[in-house]
Write a sequence for this structure.
């Protein structure tokens, strides 16, 4: 099966705006559509509380006519049109959906961050992990998130193998970003966040890209929008992942990035696995 994950940084804008950035986002959607994946996971949809509008639905049908989808937006109590996730899956696939609340702190459980599909023999779940924020103001809450999210994945794994995708908002090792020396106190590369990711892997999960490419350097999934030359200079971070239960690792065929052209921010990632 083939899976794609992408933090789109506003599906809303990609489907409704005519800005240069939205046009570049739609070119990436074209690329994703051509991959003909079985499941497509999208993070940071930024849709309103009520989810996709009529126009959103029409555009999604144009890009992905062979897919059904589930969505989860931020809810009352969290910021409107903030975070949010969507999972598209090929019509005919037999799935059950869950929108879990994991006991996360603050409003994190209301921010539309996790969608899980249950298949006959495995779970597919994707996540938009909370960012530690400017001045690391959300780092303490992020550490709690990492613990309860790990508990959630481990609980799934006791029942069926798990494929977990998404924007995990952490570069795990120094090899996973271009300038580690300058970023040890930056959100996404603090010791606490890196340890949280290590703890997650130690609970029986494998970073599929690093498993296949243990020494690969310069392979990133995110380049800062605010730095115009970040992608040109490949000053990136690898913060988007496909994780799988340890017992699935021998079935991994491919785990890689999808070229998003000139568009900065996140690029899509792809997993092919024999299930």
């Amino acid at each position: 099966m083939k899976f794609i994950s992408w933090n789109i940084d506003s599906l809303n804008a990609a489907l409704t705006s005519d800005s240069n950035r939205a046009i570049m986002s739609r070119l990436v959607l074209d690329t994703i559509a051509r991959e003909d994946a079985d499941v497509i996971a999208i993070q940071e949809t930024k849709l309103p509380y009520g989810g996709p509008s009529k126009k959103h639905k029409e555009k999604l049908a144009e890009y992905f006519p062979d897919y059904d989808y589930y969505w989860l937006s931020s809810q009352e109590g969290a910021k409107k049109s903030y975070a949010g996730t969507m999972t598209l899956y090929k019509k005919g696939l037999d799935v059950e959906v869950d929108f879990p609340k994991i006991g996360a702190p603050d409003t994190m459980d209301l921010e539309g961050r996790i969608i899980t599909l249950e298949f006959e023999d495995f779970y597919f779940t994707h996540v938009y992990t909370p960012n530690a924020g400017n001045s690391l103001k959300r780092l303490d809450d992020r550490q709690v998130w990492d613990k309860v999210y790990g508990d959630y994945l481990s609980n799934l794994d006791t029942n069926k193998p798990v494929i977990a995708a998404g924007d995990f908002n952490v570069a795990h090792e120094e090899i996973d970003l271009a300038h580690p020396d300058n970023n040890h106190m930056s959100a996404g590369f603090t010791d606490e966040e890196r340890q949280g990711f290590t703890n997650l892997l130690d609970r029986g999960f494998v970073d599929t890209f690093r498993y296949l490419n243990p020494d690969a350097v310069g392979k990133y999934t995110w380049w800062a929008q605010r730095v115009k030359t970040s992608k040109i200079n490949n000053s990136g971070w690898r913060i988007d992942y496909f994780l799988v239960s340890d017992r699935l690792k021998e079935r991994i065929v491919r785990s890689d990035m999808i070229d998003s052209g000139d568009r900065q921010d996140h690029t899509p990632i792809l997993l092919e696995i024999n299930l």
In short: Residues 227 and 240 are 19 Å apart (CA to CA). DSSP finds six helices and 15 strands in the chain. The longest strand covers residues 2-7. The two ends are 7 Å apart (CA to CA).
